[in-house]
Specification:
The protein has 518 residues and is α+β, with helices and mostly antiparallel strands. The chain is 30% helix and 23% strand. Strands 4, 5, 6, 13, 14, 15, 16, 17, 18 and 19 form a ten-stranded mixed beta sheet that branches. Helix 1 runs parallel beside helix 5, helix 1 crosses helix 12 and helix 2 packs across helix 14. The longest helix has 22 residues. The chain is globular, with a radius of gyration of 23 Å.
Length: 518
Protein backbone atom coordinates (compact mmCIF):
# COMPACT_ATOMS: atom_id res chain seq x y z
CA UNK A 1 0.00 0.00 0.00
CA UNK A 2 3.07 2.21 -0.47
CA UNK A 3 3.04 3.40 3.12
CA UNK A 4 -0.45 4.85 2.93
CA UNK A 5 -3.45 3.75 4.96
CA UNK A 6 -5.56 2.54 2.11
CA UNK A 7 -5.71 1.79 -1.58
CA UNK A 8 -7.22 3.92 -4.35
CA UNK A 9 -10.65 3.36 -2.85
CA UNK A 10 -10.41 6.27 -0.47
CA UNK A 11 -13.82 5.51 1.00
CA UNK A 12 -13.11 1.81 1.17
CA UNK A 13 -12.70 -0.49 4.11
CA UNK A 14 -9.46 -2.28 4.96
CA UNK A 15 -10.60 -5.56 6.44
CA UNK A 16 -10.80 -9.27 5.78
CA UNK A 17 -14.44 -9.29 6.79
CA UNK A 18 -17.35 -7.12 5.82
CA UNK A 19 -18.21 -4.20 8.10
CA UNK A 20 -21.14 -4.74 10.43
CA UNK A 21 -23.81 -2.17 11.23
CA UNK A 22 -23.61 -3.29 14.89
CA UNK A 23 -19.91 -3.19 15.79
CA UNK A 24 -18.67 -3.62 19.33
CA UNK A 25 -16.54 -0.48 19.09
CA UNK A 26 -16.60 2.70 17.01
CA UNK A 27 -13.47 4.84 16.90
CA UNK A 28 -14.12 8.41 15.69
CA UNK A 29 -11.04 9.90 14.04
CA UNK A 30 -8.15 8.10 12.35
CA UNK A 31 -5.32 9.74 14.24
CA UNK A 32 -2.72 8.38 16.64
CA UNK A 33 -5.16 8.22 19.57
CA UNK A 34 -7.84 6.09 17.90
CA UNK A 35 -5.23 3.93 16.17
CA UNK A 36 -3.45 3.23 19.46
CA UNK A 37 -6.65 2.34 21.33
CA UNK A 38 -7.74 0.17 18.39
CA UNK A 39 -4.48 -1.77 18.51
CA UNK A 40 -4.84 -2.39 22.25
CA UNK A 41 -8.44 -3.59 21.90
CA UNK A 42 -7.71 -5.97 19.02
CA UNK A 43 -4.66 -7.38 20.80
CA UNK A 44 -6.60 -7.93 24.01
CA UNK A 45 -9.78 -9.27 22.36
CA UNK A 46 -9.25 -10.27 18.71
CA UNK A 47 -12.93 -11.18 18.33
CA UNK A 48 -14.06 -7.57 18.84
CA UNK A 49 -15.60 -5.88 15.81
CA UNK A 50 -14.12 -2.40 15.50
CA UNK A 51 -15.14 0.33 13.04
CA UNK A 52 -13.20 3.57 12.50
CA UNK A 53 -14.66 6.73 10.93
CA UNK A 54 -12.47 9.49 9.48
CA UNK A 55 -13.64 12.76 7.91
CA UNK A 56 -10.61 13.14 5.65
CA UNK A 57 -9.44 10.87 2.83
CA UNK A 58 -6.65 9.21 4.80
CA UNK A 59 -5.44 8.59 8.33
CA UNK A 60 -3.11 10.78 10.38
CA UNK A 61 -3.70 13.96 8.38
CA UNK A 62 -4.63 16.33 11.20
CA UNK A 63 -2.62 16.81 14.41
CA UNK A 64 -0.86 13.45 13.98
CA UNK A 65 0.67 14.43 10.63
CA UNK A 66 4.44 14.72 10.73
CA UNK A 67 4.48 18.39 9.72
CA UNK A 68 1.66 19.37 12.09
CA UNK A 69 3.66 18.77 15.27
CA UNK A 70 7.27 18.91 16.45
CA UNK A 71 7.59 15.12 16.65
CA UNK A 72 9.23 15.25 20.04
CA UNK A 73 9.03 11.96 21.87
CA UNK A 74 7.79 13.88 24.93
CA UNK A 75 9.66 12.32 27.83
CA UNK A 76 9.83 15.70 29.62
CA UNK A 77 13.58 15.75 29.11
CA UNK A 78 13.79 19.24 27.68
CA UNK A 79 10.41 20.95 28.02
CA UNK A 80 10.90 23.55 30.74
CA UNK A 81 7.17 24.15 31.23
CA UNK A 82 6.97 20.74 32.98
CA UNK A 83 9.42 21.90 35.69
CA UNK A 84 8.17 25.14 37.27
CA UNK A 85 10.31 27.00 39.76
CA UNK A 86 8.94 27.41 43.26
CA UNK A 87 9.01 30.67 45.18
CA UNK A 88 12.05 29.48 47.17
CA UNK A 89 14.05 28.87 43.98
CA UNK A 90 13.74 25.07 44.01
CA UNK A 91 12.32 23.25 41.00
CA UNK A 92 9.25 21.00 41.00
CA UNK A 93 9.87 17.98 38.73
CA UNK A 94 6.74 15.98 39.66
CA UNK A 95 4.92 16.72 36.39
CA UNK A 96 8.06 15.94 34.40
CA UNK A 97 8.36 12.55 36.07
CA UNK A 98 4.73 11.81 35.30
CA UNK A 99 5.13 12.58 31.58
CA UNK A 100 8.54 10.89 31.47
CA UNK A 101 7.22 7.53 32.59
CA UNK A 102 4.04 7.83 30.50
CA UNK A 103 6.30 7.85 27.44
CA UNK A 104 7.71 4.52 28.64
CA UNK A 105 4.27 3.00 28.02
CA UNK A 106 4.42 4.13 24.39
CA UNK A 107 7.91 2.67 24.04
CA UNK A 108 6.71 -0.67 25.39
CA UNK A 109 3.74 -0.82 23.02
CA UNK A 110 5.92 0.04 20.02
CA UNK A 111 8.51 -2.54 21.08
CA UNK A 112 5.82 -5.19 21.34
CA UNK A 113 4.59 -4.40 17.82
CA UNK A 114 8.13 -4.42 16.41
CA UNK A 115 8.91 -7.73 18.13
CA UNK A 116 5.84 -9.42 16.66
CA UNK A 117 6.53 -8.02 13.19
CA UNK A 118 3.50 -5.72 13.08
CA UNK A 119 5.93 -2.83 12.59
CA UNK A 120 8.74 -4.21 10.42
CA UNK A 121 11.27 -1.44 11.06
CA UNK A 122 11.15 1.17 13.86
CA UNK A 123 13.16 3.54 11.65
CA UNK A 124 9.97 4.00 9.64
CA UNK A 125 8.73 6.36 12.37
CA UNK A 126 11.35 6.69 15.12
CA UNK A 127 14.90 8.09 15.18
CA UNK A 128 17.38 8.75 17.99
CA UNK A 129 17.65 12.50 18.61
CA UNK A 130 19.16 14.15 21.71
CA UNK A 131 16.83 16.37 23.72
CA UNK A 132 18.33 19.64 24.97
CA UNK A 133 17.21 22.57 27.09
CA UNK A 134 19.04 25.82 26.31
CA UNK A 135 18.84 29.18 28.08
CA UNK A 136 20.78 32.43 28.29
CA UNK A 137 21.01 35.18 30.91
CA UNK A 138 22.04 34.86 34.57
CA UNK A 139 18.53 34.25 35.92
CA UNK A 140 17.71 31.54 33.39
CA UNK A 141 21.10 29.88 33.85
CA UNK A 142 20.50 29.70 37.61
CA UNK A 143 17.08 28.12 36.95
CA UNK A 144 18.47 25.50 34.57
CA UNK A 145 21.26 24.66 37.01
CA UNK A 146 18.73 24.11 39.81
CA UNK A 147 16.57 22.05 37.45
CA UNK A 148 19.52 19.87 36.46
CA UNK A 149 20.50 19.26 40.08
CA UNK A 150 16.98 18.11 40.89
CA UNK A 151 16.45 15.96 37.79
CA UNK A 152 19.87 14.33 37.55
CA UNK A 153 19.49 13.05 41.12
CA UNK A 154 16.48 10.96 40.02
CA UNK A 155 16.90 7.59 38.30
CA UNK A 156 14.43 8.55 35.56
CA UNK A 157 16.92 11.17 34.36
CA UNK A 158 20.05 9.06 34.63
CA UNK A 159 22.55 10.25 32.05
CA UNK A 160 21.43 13.89 31.88
CA UNK A 161 24.37 16.18 31.03
CA UNK A 162 24.80 19.85 31.95
CA UNK A 163 27.14 22.53 30.70
CA UNK A 164 27.68 26.29 30.89
CA UNK A 165 30.70 26.08 28.61
CA UNK A 166 30.29 27.65 25.16
CA UNK A 167 32.62 25.19 23.44
CA UNK A 168 30.99 22.16 25.02
CA UNK A 169 27.48 23.28 24.07
CA UNK A 170 28.75 24.04 20.55
CA UNK A 171 29.91 20.43 20.28
CA UNK A 172 26.36 19.31 21.14
CA UNK A 173 24.56 21.77 18.84
CA UNK A 174 26.87 24.01 16.78
CA UNK A 175 24.18 26.14 15.13
CA UNK A 176 22.90 27.60 18.40
CA UNK A 177 26.40 28.78 19.40
CA UNK A 178 27.98 30.05 16.19
CA UNK A 179 27.89 33.86 16.15
CA UNK A 180 26.84 34.12 19.79
CA UNK A 181 28.48 36.66 22.11
CA UNK A 182 31.14 34.71 24.00
CA UNK A 183 30.46 36.79 27.10
CA UNK A 184 26.77 35.83 27.20
CA UNK A 185 25.95 33.48 30.11
CA UNK A 186 24.45 30.29 28.67
CA UNK A 187 23.54 26.83 29.94
CA UNK A 188 22.24 23.61 28.42
CA UNK A 189 21.19 20.15 29.44
CA UNK A 190 21.24 17.13 27.15
CA UNK A 191 19.67 13.67 27.18
CA UNK A 192 21.04 11.50 24.38
CA UNK A 193 18.16 9.04 24.91
CA UNK A 194 15.71 11.43 23.23
CA UNK A 195 13.81 10.66 20.03
CA UNK A 196 12.22 12.24 16.97
CA UNK A 197 8.87 10.62 16.17
CA UNK A 198 6.87 10.84 12.95
CA UNK A 199 3.41 10.30 14.41
CA UNK A 200 1.83 10.45 10.98
CA UNK A 201 3.96 7.53 9.79
CA UNK A 202 3.26 5.67 13.05
CA UNK A 203 -0.49 6.21 12.63
CA UNK A 204 -0.33 4.74 9.12
CA UNK A 205 1.61 1.73 10.39
CA UNK A 206 -0.91 1.10 13.16
CA UNK A 207 -3.93 1.44 10.87
CA UNK A 208 -2.29 -0.83 8.29
CA UNK A 209 -1.74 -3.40 11.03
CA UNK A 210 -5.34 -3.10 12.18
CA UNK A 211 -6.51 -3.46 8.58
CA UNK A 212 -5.05 -6.95 8.47
CA UNK A 213 -7.15 -8.07 11.43
CA UNK A 214 -10.55 -9.75 10.96
CA UNK A 215 -13.36 -7.61 12.30
CA UNK A 216 -11.72 -4.22 11.73
CA UNK A 217 -12.84 -1.65 9.19
CA UNK A 218 -11.97 1.97 8.47
CA UNK A 219 -14.22 4.32 6.50
CA UNK A 220 -12.71 7.51 5.07
CA UNK A 221 -14.60 10.59 3.90
CA UNK A 222 -17.11 9.96 6.67
CA UNK A 223 -17.97 12.81 9.01
CA UNK A 224 -19.78 11.79 12.17
CA UNK A 225 -22.82 14.06 12.43
CA UNK A 226 -24.90 12.39 15.11
CA UNK A 227 -24.52 10.54 18.42
CA UNK A 228 -27.66 9.33 20.13
CA UNK A 229 -28.39 6.72 22.75
CA UNK A 230 -30.26 3.69 21.51
CA UNK A 231 -32.94 2.01 23.59
CA UNK A 232 -30.76 -0.99 24.42
CA UNK A 233 -27.89 1.04 25.88
CA UNK A 234 -25.96 1.17 22.63
CA UNK A 235 -25.08 4.29 20.63
CA UNK A 236 -26.49 5.27 17.26
CA UNK A 237 -23.61 6.82 15.32
CA UNK A 238 -24.53 8.70 12.13
CA UNK A 239 -21.84 9.43 9.56
CA UNK A 240 -22.20 11.47 6.41
CA UNK A 241 -20.34 10.54 3.24
CA UNK A 242 -18.55 13.81 2.42
CA UNK A 243 -18.45 12.88 -1.28
CA UNK A 244 -22.08 11.92 -1.85
CA UNK A 245 -23.87 13.49 1.10
CA UNK A 246 -25.52 10.21 2.06
CA UNK A 247 -25.79 9.32 5.75
CA UNK A 248 -25.37 5.92 7.34
CA UNK A 249 -26.23 5.06 10.93
CA UNK A 250 -24.73 2.18 12.86
CA UNK A 251 -25.28 0.90 16.40
CA UNK A 252 -22.21 0.54 18.64
CA UNK A 253 -21.71 -0.87 22.09
CA UNK A 254 -18.77 1.47 22.85
CA UNK A 255 -17.69 4.77 21.25
CA UNK A 256 -14.31 6.48 21.49
CA UNK A 257 -14.22 10.11 20.37
CA UNK A 258 -10.58 10.63 19.43
CA UNK A 259 -11.16 13.29 16.80
CA UNK A 260 -8.64 15.86 18.06
CA UNK A 261 -10.14 19.34 17.95
CA UNK A 262 -13.34 17.77 16.60
CA UNK A 263 -13.89 15.84 19.83
CA UNK A 264 -15.58 18.65 21.78
CA UNK A 265 -18.51 19.15 19.34
CA UNK A 266 -19.07 15.39 19.27
CA UNK A 267 -18.98 15.18 23.07
CA UNK A 268 -21.63 17.90 23.10
CA UNK A 269 -23.74 15.94 20.59
CA UNK A 270 -23.64 12.89 22.86
CA UNK A 271 -25.53 14.78 25.56
CA UNK A 272 -23.87 12.90 28.43
CA UNK A 273 -24.04 14.83 31.72
CA UNK A 274 -20.30 14.35 32.24
CA UNK A 275 -19.63 16.53 29.16
CA UNK A 276 -21.68 19.45 30.46
CA UNK A 277 -19.84 22.77 30.71
CA UNK A 278 -16.72 21.79 28.75
CA UNK A 279 -15.48 24.33 26.23
CA UNK A 280 -12.53 24.76 23.92
CA UNK A 281 -10.04 27.51 23.17
CA UNK A 282 -8.36 27.03 19.78
CA UNK A 283 -4.69 27.92 19.31
CA UNK A 284 -3.05 27.81 15.90
CA UNK A 285 0.64 27.78 15.14
CA UNK A 286 3.24 28.68 12.53
CA UNK A 287 6.63 27.01 12.02
CA UNK A 288 9.71 28.24 10.27
CA UNK A 289 11.03 25.28 8.25
CA UNK A 290 14.46 24.68 6.73
CA UNK A 291 15.00 21.96 4.11
CA UNK A 292 18.51 23.09 3.11
CA UNK A 293 20.73 20.07 3.68
CA UNK A 294 23.86 22.16 4.33
CA UNK A 295 22.04 23.63 7.35
CA UNK A 296 19.83 20.81 8.59
CA UNK A 297 22.61 18.22 8.55
CA UNK A 298 24.61 20.31 11.02
CA UNK A 299 21.96 20.20 13.73
CA UNK A 300 21.01 16.93 15.40
CA UNK A 301 18.93 17.73 18.47
CA UNK A 302 15.65 19.07 19.74
CA UNK A 303 16.56 22.26 21.59
CA UNK A 304 13.88 23.77 23.84
CA UNK A 305 14.01 27.23 25.41
CA UNK A 306 11.89 29.09 27.95
CA UNK A 307 8.35 30.08 27.09
CA UNK A 308 7.27 33.70 27.04
CA UNK A 309 5.14 34.80 29.99
CA UNK A 310 1.52 33.76 29.57
CA UNK A 311 2.13 31.49 26.59
CA UNK A 312 0.53 28.03 26.28
CA UNK A 313 2.83 24.98 26.61
CA UNK A 314 2.81 24.13 22.91
CA UNK A 315 4.24 27.58 22.21
CA UNK A 316 7.56 26.94 23.98
CA UNK A 317 10.18 27.91 21.35
CA UNK A 318 12.34 25.10 20.07
CA UNK A 319 14.74 24.34 17.22
CA UNK A 320 14.11 20.78 16.12
CA UNK A 321 15.60 18.13 13.94
CA UNK A 322 12.74 16.51 12.00
CA UNK A 323 13.09 13.35 9.95
CA UNK A 324 10.07 12.74 7.74
CA UNK A 325 10.04 10.40 4.78
CA UNK A 326 13.76 9.81 5.20
CA UNK A 327 14.69 13.51 4.83
CA UNK A 328 16.15 15.58 7.64
CA UNK A 329 14.83 19.13 8.08
CA UNK A 330 14.71 21.77 10.77
CA UNK A 331 11.65 23.31 12.40
CA UNK A 332 11.60 26.37 14.60
CA UNK A 333 8.66 27.72 16.54
CA UNK A 334 5.84 27.44 16.95
CA UNK A 335 4.60 30.99 16.77
CA UNK A 336 1.18 30.92 18.35
CA UNK A 337 -1.85 32.43 16.70
CA UNK A 338 -5.58 32.41 16.93
CA UNK A 339 -8.15 30.84 14.65
CA UNK A 340 -11.75 29.94 15.34
CA UNK A 341 -11.20 26.56 13.66
CA UNK A 342 -10.99 23.49 15.91
CA UNK A 343 -9.19 21.48 13.21
CA UNK A 344 -6.67 22.51 10.57
CA UNK A 345 -9.19 21.34 7.98
CA UNK A 346 -12.12 22.56 10.06
CA UNK A 347 -14.61 25.40 9.76
CA UNK A 348 -14.31 29.01 10.89
CA UNK A 349 -17.65 28.43 12.64
CA UNK A 350 -16.21 25.73 14.97
CA UNK A 351 -15.69 27.94 18.03
CA UNK A 352 -19.04 29.69 17.73
CA UNK A 353 -20.91 26.42 17.14
CA UNK A 354 -19.39 25.02 20.35
CA UNK A 355 -20.83 27.79 22.53
CA UNK A 356 -23.77 26.80 24.70
CA UNK A 357 -25.62 27.89 27.81
CA UNK A 358 -23.57 25.30 29.73
CA UNK A 359 -20.12 26.57 28.80
CA UNK A 360 -20.45 30.29 28.15
CA UNK A 361 -19.81 31.24 31.81
CA UNK A 362 -16.72 28.96 32.13
CA UNK A 363 -15.43 30.47 28.86
CA UNK A 364 -15.89 34.02 30.13
CA UNK A 365 -14.20 33.07 33.42
CA UNK A 366 -11.18 31.80 31.51
CA UNK A 367 -11.05 34.96 29.39
CA UNK A 368 -11.08 37.06 32.58
CA UNK A 369 -8.48 34.97 34.41
CA UNK A 370 -6.03 34.51 31.53
CA UNK A 371 -5.34 38.04 30.35
CA UNK A 372 -1.63 37.19 29.96
CA UNK A 373 -2.52 34.46 27.47
CA UNK A 374 -4.77 36.83 25.53
CA UNK A 375 -2.04 39.48 25.43
CA UNK A 376 0.50 36.87 24.32
CA UNK A 377 -1.69 35.59 21.48
CA UNK A 378 -2.48 39.11 20.29
CA UNK A 379 1.24 39.89 20.29
CA UNK A 380 2.01 36.74 18.32
CA UNK A 381 -0.69 37.44 15.73
CA UNK A 382 0.62 41.00 15.28
CA UNK A 383 4.23 39.88 14.79
CA UNK A 384 5.74 40.60 11.40
CA UNK A 385 7.87 38.09 9.50
CA UNK A 386 10.94 40.09 10.56
CA UNK A 387 9.98 39.80 14.24
CA UNK A 388 9.46 36.06 13.86
CA UNK A 389 12.84 35.64 12.21
CA UNK A 390 14.49 37.69 14.95
CA UNK A 391 13.17 35.15 17.48
CA UNK A 392 14.79 32.35 15.47
CA UNK A 393 18.09 34.24 15.53
CA UNK A 394 18.02 34.24 19.34
CA UNK A 395 18.43 30.46 19.02
CA UNK A 396 20.39 30.35 15.76
CA UNK A 397 22.34 33.63 15.45
CA UNK A 398 23.61 32.99 11.92
CA UNK A 399 20.29 31.86 10.44
CA UNK A 400 19.79 33.11 6.86
CA UNK A 401 16.28 34.21 5.95
CA UNK A 402 16.42 32.68 2.46
CA UNK A 403 16.88 29.20 3.97
CA UNK A 404 13.57 29.26 5.84
CA UNK A 405 9.92 29.09 4.81
CA UNK A 406 6.72 29.48 6.83
CA UNK A 407 4.60 26.37 7.45
CA UNK A 408 1.24 26.08 9.20
CA UNK A 409 1.25 23.76 12.23
CA UNK A 410 -1.66 21.65 13.39
CA UNK A 411 -4.55 23.24 15.25
CA UNK A 412 -4.78 22.68 19.02
CA UNK A 413 -7.87 23.14 21.19
CA UNK A 414 -7.12 23.80 24.85
CA UNK A 415 -9.76 22.38 27.15
CA UNK A 416 -11.87 24.68 29.29
CA UNK A 417 -13.05 22.53 32.16
CA UNK A 418 -16.02 23.37 34.37
CA UNK A 419 -15.14 23.67 38.03
CA UNK A 420 -17.22 24.54 41.09
CA UNK A 421 -15.87 27.67 42.73
CA UNK A 422 -14.82 27.84 46.36
CA UNK A 423 -16.08 30.33 48.90
CA UNK A 424 -19.53 31.19 50.14
CA UNK A 425 -20.99 31.86 46.68
CA UNK A 426 -20.85 28.53 44.88
CA UNK A 427 -21.00 28.74 41.11
CA UNK A 428 -19.55 26.96 38.13
CA UNK A 429 -16.44 28.58 36.73
CA UNK A 430 -13.98 27.63 34.01
CA UNK A 431 -10.40 26.42 34.28
CA UNK A 432 -8.07 26.39 31.27
CA UNK A 433 -6.37 22.98 31.07
CA UNK A 434 -3.12 22.57 29.14
CA UNK A 435 -3.01 18.78 29.18
CA UNK A 436 -5.33 16.07 27.93
CA UNK A 437 -8.70 15.30 29.50
CA UNK A 438 -10.55 11.98 29.30
CA UNK A 439 -14.32 12.45 29.70
CA UNK A 440 -16.43 9.32 30.02
CA UNK A 441 -20.08 8.50 30.62
CA UNK A 442 -21.13 6.96 33.92
CA UNK A 443 -22.11 3.72 32.17
CA UNK A 444 -18.65 3.57 30.46
CA UNK A 445 -20.22 3.29 27.00
CA UNK A 446 -18.62 6.42 25.51
CA UNK A 447 -15.44 8.37 26.14
CA UNK A 448 -14.02 11.55 24.59
CA UNK A 449 -10.43 12.72 24.59
CA UNK A 450 -10.01 16.49 24.82
CA UNK A 451 -6.94 18.71 24.91
CA UNK A 452 -3.46 18.87 23.45
CA UNK A 453 0.10 18.57 24.83
CA UNK A 454 1.73 16.11 25.47
CA UNK A 455 -0.85 14.31 23.36
CA UNK A 456 0.59 11.85 20.85
CA UNK A 457 3.63 10.94 22.95
CA UNK A 458 1.42 9.55 25.68
CA UNK A 459 -1.20 7.95 23.42
CA UNK A 460 -0.50 4.50 24.85
CA UNK A 461 -0.86 5.75 28.43
CA UNK A 462 -4.13 7.48 27.52
CA UNK A 463 -5.39 4.28 25.88
CA UNK A 464 -4.62 2.40 29.10
CA UNK A 465 -6.61 5.00 31.05
CA UNK A 466 -9.57 4.40 28.73
CA UNK A 467 -9.24 0.63 29.19
CA UNK A 468 -9.08 0.92 32.98
CA UNK A 469 -11.99 3.30 33.08
CA UNK A 470 -14.34 1.63 30.59
CA UNK A 471 -13.23 -2.01 30.38
CA UNK A 472 -12.44 -2.67 34.03
CA UNK A 473 -14.61 -5.82 34.04
CA UNK A 474 -12.42 -7.32 31.34
CA UNK A 475 -9.14 -6.33 33.02
CA UNK A 476 -8.98 -9.29 35.40
CA UNK A 477 -6.58 -12.18 35.90
CA UNK A 478 -9.10 -14.42 34.14
CA UNK A 479 -9.61 -11.86 31.38
CA UNK A 480 -7.38 -9.36 29.61
CA UNK A 481 -4.83 -8.66 32.33
CA UNK A 482 -2.24 -11.39 31.51
CA UNK A 483 -2.27 -10.40 27.84
CA UNK A 484 -1.98 -6.70 28.75
CA UNK A 485 1.11 -7.44 30.88
CA UNK A 486 2.69 -9.19 27.90
CA UNK A 487 2.23 -5.98 25.89
CA UNK A 488 3.12 -3.54 28.70
CA UNK A 489 5.40 -5.46 31.11
CA UNK A 490 5.49 -2.59 33.63
CA UNK A 491 1.71 -2.25 33.85
CA UNK A 492 0.85 -1.53 37.49
CA UNK A 493 4.45 -0.58 38.37
CA UNK A 494 5.35 2.99 39.33
CA UNK A 495 8.54 3.60 37.35
CA UNK A 496 9.20 6.83 39.22
CA UNK A 497 9.74 4.71 42.35
CA UNK A 498 11.02 1.38 41.00
CA UNK A 499 14.47 2.24 39.64
CA UNK A 500 15.33 -1.35 38.67
CA UNK A 501 12.13 -1.80 36.65
CA UNK A 502 12.74 1.58 35.00
CA UNK A 503 16.28 0.63 33.97
CA UNK A 504 15.19 -2.79 32.70
CA UNK A 505 12.34 -1.57 30.54
CA UNK A 506 14.38 1.26 29.05
CA UNK A 507 17.26 -1.05 28.17
CA UNK A 508 14.86 -3.56 26.58
CA UNK A 509 12.83 -1.06 24.58
CA UNK A 510 15.93 0.86 23.44
CA UNK A 511 17.42 -2.33 22.01
CA UNK A 512 14.21 -3.24 20.16
CA UNK A 513 13.53 0.28 18.89
CA UNK A 514 17.18 0.95 17.99
CA UNK A 515 17.48 4.09 20.10
CA UNK A 516 20.07 5.24 22.64
CA UNK A 517 20.24 4.00 26.22
CA UNK A 518 22.48 5.08 29.10
Amino acid sequence: MNGRCHSKLSESVMTKTQATDRPDVVLIGAGIMSATLGVFLKELEPSLSVLMFETLHDCGLESSDGWNNAGTGHAANCELNYTPQRADGSVDISKALEVNTEFDISRQLWSFLVSKGAIPNPRAFLHPCPHMSFVWGDTNVAFLRARYEEMSAHHCYHGMEYSEDHANIAAWAPLIMEGRDTAQPVAATRMITGTDVDYGALTRLLVQHLGKQPGFSVHYNRKVTGLERDGDGRWLVSAQNTSTGSVETISAKFVFIGAGGGALPLLQKSGIPEGRGFGGFPVSGIWLRCDVDEVSQRHHAKVYGKAASGSPPMSVPHLDTRIIGGKQSLLFGPYAGFSTRFLKHGSLDDLFASLSADNIIPLLDVARDNLQLSEYLIGQVMQSADHQFATLQQFFPKAAKQDWTRAVAGQRVQTIKPHMSSGWFKHEEGVLEFGTEVVSAADKSIVALLGASPGASTAAFIALEVLQRCFDRELTEDGWLPRLRSIIPTFGIDLTRDADACRRTRAATAATLKIENV
